[in-house]
Design goal:
434 residues, 9 strands, globular, single chain, 16 helices, two-stranded antiparallel ribbon, alpha/beta, seven-stranded parallel sheet, transmembrane, sialyltransferase cstii, chain A
Length: 434
């Protein structure tokens, strides 16, 4: 901007335009108003009183223009980023409707009533009565043959029986009280499962650390097609299911067992044996068990006292989480493959009897206590037996194995969200061997 200086004689002369102003004006010609152009041409000298106001106005206009340009550029980047976030792969999103239906436990009320009947000493149903009688016989209390079909009251006739009964009611009541949905339960598996096992093994300084690697070994007949034995045994921890045999199958399934994972039906069978023997992998191998029927706490009460190694019952909140996850995948599969409505799912999957498999929950346990999980013996083929160690061919209809396989594939993929898990829980790397 031209300046005007006053000579000693009172006349005024123009001073040169500062170089940085001319550079700005020529670099941004759209900022130059007609007045500015006339100034550059020295055709319109201004009085001293006008110059400061013009200078201030020019700087404001220049600053506003530069700022607006930056804001527009930043806004475009932000819009572009938001657009990219909003346009996601539909396969990476969870379905809200499926989540809502998967959260409904069809058999919840029946289960609550069953538990309350047991706590009240009501064993009048045929199934409960049969289990109760066999349990009394197991602990050597006199029940004559004529009384087998009589509804026995839950009155105690010996101090030993009375003690067992009190223990049974205590553990059942505590288990029932905790049975609810709590997605953060995955973060507690180290404390509830790993810590007791480590302490039994004499390890006291790794309570917050996961096992480096775990192999979860299923019982599918496809294991007979490969020699995975050495690979399985190379893992830090090996989890086996439902007392599956390893003798004569070592090359296929390995021989190492760190944790025996069973459902309570297995323990119920073991409870009929002398000493409640349920240790095919050795008496020092810890057992983790989930409860299929509340009545099976009778077996747990007796067998727990005879076990040298820990006999741990899974947290019922963990059970509820597993049930919801499997039901979500089962509902999704049912709708996609049948084209029917969600309200028809129950009739196709035995409704209240629908349940996850032991293998699925063992995999979930591995996710909670291991830094890396390898899955063996999950899957099927037309030529393979259902279980590698038995001649069983058919599957149980109360499980949806195909839905569980879809869950395992998502674990291996590692990108897809797993329903009902909290963000704070990070799913470890998973490898599945076929």
């Amino acid at each position: 901007m031209p300046g005007v200086s006053e000579n000693k004689d009172g006349s005024e002369t123009e001073t040169p335009i500062p170089k940085f102003f001319t550079t700005i004006i020529y670099s941004f010609p759209y900022l130059a108003s007609p007045t500015t152009n006339s100034i550059l041409k020295n055709t319109f000298p201004m009085k001293r009183t006008v110059r400061p106001l013009f200078m201030l106005l020019f700087l404001i206009v220049f600053a506003a223009t530069v700022t607006s340009r930056a804001m527009i550029r930043r806004g475009l980047i932000s819009i572009d980023h938001e657009t990219r976030v909003m346009i996601q792969d539909p396969q990476l999103l969870l379905n809200a409707t499926l989540l809502k239906h998967a959260a409904i436990d069809i058999g919840e009320e029946k289960s609550k009533q069953e538990i309350q009947n047991l706590l009240d000493g009501n064993i009048r149903s045929q199934a409960r009565h049969r289990t109760f009688v066999s349990w009394r016989r197991f602990i050597h209390h006199d029940v004559d043959k004529s009384s087998r079909n009589v509804n026995l009251p839950a009155t105690m006739r010996s101090p030993l029986f009375y003690r067992y009964w009190l223990d049974f009611r205590k553990v059942l009541n505590e288990w029932a009280r905790k049975k609810r949905f709590q997605p953060g339960i995955m973060l507690e598996l180290i404390r509830s499962v790993k810590v007791p096992i480590d302490r039994y093994s004499g390890v006291f300084d790794s309570s917050e650390q996961r096992y480096a690697s775990c192999a979860v070994v299923g019982n599918s007949g496809i294991l007979l097609n490969k020699d995975y034995g050495s690979l399985i045994d190379a893992h830090d921890v090996v989890i086996r299911l439902n007392n599956a045999r390893v003798d004569n199958f070592e090359h296929k399934v390995g021989k190492k067992t760190s944790i025996s994972f069973v459902n309570s039906n297995i323990l119920h069978l073991c409870a009929r044996r002398e000493g409640c023997f349920c240790h095919p992998y050795g008496a020092n191998v810890p057992i983790v068990m989930y409860i299929c029927q509340a009545m099976h706490f009778l077996d747990y009460t007796v067998c727990n006292s005879s076990h040298k190694a820990p006999l741990l019952v899974t947290d019922p909140r963990f059970d509820v989480l597993c049930a919801r996850i499997v039901k979500y995948y089962s509902l999704k599969r049912f709708v996609e493959e049948s084209g029917k409505g969600l309200e028809e799912w129950g009739s196709a999957h035995d409704g209240a009897l629908f349940h996850y498999s032991s293998g699925m929950q063992a995999v979930m346990l591995g996710l909670g206590i291991c830094d890396k999980v390898s899955i063996f013996g999950f899957g099927k083929s037309a030529s393979a037996k259902h279980h590698y160690h038995t001649n069983q061919k058919a599957e149980l209809h109360l499980h949806d194995y195909e839905a569980e396989y879809a869950f395992y594939r998502d674990l291996v993929d590692g990108r897809k969200p797993i329903p009902f898990l909290v963000d704070a829980f990070k799913v470890p790397p998973v490898v599945m061997y076929h």
